[in-house]
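Technical annex B. To support the medicinal chemistry partners, we prepared a structural model of the target in complex with iron/sulfur cluster, based solely on the information shown next.
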Amino acid sequence: MQMGEGQAFVIIDKRLHSLLTAKPAGCAEAPCRVPVPAGISICEALQLLGVRLPNALTPVVNGITQDLSYILHSGDEVRLVVQISGG
Amino acid sequence: MLVYKADTLPLPRAEFLNGQSAYTGLVLHVDLTTPRCWVESPPEAFYRRFVGGRNFILHYLLTQTPPRIDPLGPQNLLIFAAGVLSGTVLPGTGRHAIGAKSPLTGALASSEAGGWWGSELKRAGYDAVVIHGRAAEPVYLLIRDREVELHSAKHLWGKTTADTQDALREAVGDEKLRVACIGPAGENLVRYASVMHDVSRAAGRSGIGAVMGSKNLKAVAVRGSLPVGLENKSLMQTVQKWINVHYKTDMAWAIQYGTAGSALGNVLTGATAIRNYTRGLLSGADQLEPEQLFRLLVRDRDTCNKCPVRCKLVVGYEDEETPIDTRYGGLEYESIASLGPLCDISDPVVIAKANELCNAYGLDSISTGGTIAFAMEALEQGALPLEWREIAPRFGDGESLIRAIHQIAHREGPGDWMAEGSQRLADRLGGRAHEWLATGRGQELPMHDPRLKQTMAMGYALSATGADHMHNYNDSFATAEEGDICSRLKEVGLPVPMPLWGISELKIEAFYYETAFKNFYDCAVICHFYPYLYQHMVEALSAASGWDVTLDEINRIGLRAITLGRLYLLREGFTAQDDRLSARAFYKLSEGPIANRALTPEEMRYWLGVYYRRMGWDEQGIPSRQAVEQLELLDYMKEN
Ligand code: SF4
């Protein structure tokens, strides 16, 4: 895992928080804005935070939809949208 | 009018009557022209090969309708088909499929509905009902414990779906009568009219309601007391035990808010098309926040047969100006998106009212929203006739949206043109109108934007039903280590997670397996929200039928539905050139979450070719004899 300069932020809203099977450190209650190091992928950031849920997530970084492999830059703000199954 | 007493009709299989099998072994045929009915007893091999649902529909369309018939003529069939698993104790199996030749696309119509109707049909002693011909005047069909009655429905013609159900329940004196019916839209042959069940469960897509209307058939009501049993109860219990634990976490989203809970998230990720695919941002999107939606509109929860999830919403609004009748049930994501953001509307009350009207009139909410959004753009571009400028729908104008739905259902003014669907409307307007179209095989695209979900876009282009999101691969769902889709992909040896963007050889492989699995679901017939894996389906189908089912068999049942669908398309005159999407699927946005993202038509064509090869089809998308033979479908190839 390669750390870059500065921090990015992961936003955990109430909906996502309620569906998580493990709550991330520093986010006992939602909504919260958790700092993560820049230079790592969103996937790695979620592992670092211990974010786990039984559905897929789509990250939206600064308003743009990205893949989980997207490498975070300093100041990026990541909103995570829960994907539901089926229709 | 016409009555067949149960003792004059064949008995279901002895195993079914003893409560030791999940399928009756009987298919009821009703000819509305003569009228008369007869009962077919297909052999066990037929059930094992096809299981039910979409495969049954395709079997009857391919063998009992001539090619290129008028979908609204008496030669078309209307097929209600449960599956071997329908109505069993397994949660998620309270479903059935309805099919016909589609009056919207000229291709296959095959749509599924939840509720109780499918399970009740099995309890009434039949696995499927095939409707032939056309009644001379409006009728309804009543099936109770194998007994079949056909009655005049003249007094029901013109009634909304809830009023029809209420009237039938009162006439029969049974509050639990399960009613599948059309509303005024089906009677008026709107090409995307739906068949409604229990008032709020739609077999919505591709105009099945118009086929029912063309047959002068207002309703099919069922009630039964026969047991839907199992061959192997303890085997089924292993699947029940698994789902009874897993639904609480894996379907927590559904328990919480149903599909309505995804509306805001889908706008934020770009999954929802806005203003007929021309904008990336929706003003007032926050109004779709689930907690707020619930506080404002949701009065209760509802469910389907034997489902503990209760994902269905009961929506109401007690307001003199915009009252919303709770009988018409709830908002689903697809309805919110197509009647809301697609028309540049974010007011939840307007969207809920529009949804109520679609359910009352029996209209497919996706095609209704899609066609109205197209008309809104046509108005903005100055392409509509001058006399309609004041009465046609306008982007962002809720009142005009509601008016347009009334117009469509009754074919009034511009509603008469809109009732034909956006493709025919574009043909009629000419000029640049095709540039504003968002369709696949002539059917309005579902609310999963093909510019975000690019493998799904290919599935839209390929499907024999026209663009459909249900029997498709969802790019956004397979991006995790966990979740049902990823677990199924792991079961067939594929690596996960899959990338979100683009298409690749690997994603084609995932598409191949996942679409086969989803088609199996539509044959069995199972709720797509349930996170079952291949292994669960192997055990459930074995337990229901007594067959020694394998994982490969589950896959092949789904592949049969895809292949029969392809043979049907070819028979009806479609070619590989028709496997495409209209212009808006490729239109790049300059703003919002999916700015500058979209496949090109050339990229899509390339990946279609890769999929054809994976299926054993030639470059023209024609299945090889060998591919058809491997699926034991050669007898259907001869029909071409
Ligand atoms: S999850 Fe929802 S749609 Fe599926 S069976 Fe249950 S209530 Fe019906």
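Notes passed to the chemistry partners:
Chain A has one domain: 7-82.
The longest helix of chain A spans residues 42-49.
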